[in-house]
Amino acid sequence: LEMNEGIPLVFGDISLVERAIQNLMDNALKFTPIGGEVVVKILAGKDDVEITIKDNGPGIKQENQALIFERYRQMKTGQQGVGVGLGLAIVKKIMELHNASIRVFSRPNEGTAFTFHLPVYNV
Length: 123
Hints:
By secondary structure, the chain is of the alpha+beta class. The chain has one domain (9-119): Heat Shock Protein 90. 27% of the residues lie in helices and 26% in strands. It has 3 helices and 5 strands; from the N terminus they run βαββααββ. The protein has a 5-stranded mixed beta sheet with strand order 1-2-3-5-4, covered by helices on one side. Strand 1, helix 1 (14-31) and strand 2 form a beta-alpha-beta unit. The longest helix has 18 residues, at 14-31. It is globular, with a radius of gyration of 15 Å. It starts with a strand and ends with a strand.
């Protein structure tokens, strides 16, 4: 876990955001090799909080990155039959409900990072 001190509260549905993070963590753990690393990074900005979940798994080819958020879409990773391909589609929908977007940064053999921002909750 990499996290700044004093992370502010964010505006969001706690159960939906928790579900999004859980889905991203499940994917990161599923595709990270034994002895690999999964990092959750939380950084506070002026108006939002950035959440990144990064692994050092096999990565995703550039041409497949636009497809991974589609329902029932799974990439060929050697782990066939694991899941039904809904996790990232659910994450994308949760981000849309929060007027946010999710971005993927990945290169084959270098791992994958998913990043999204939530607005700071101003009391």
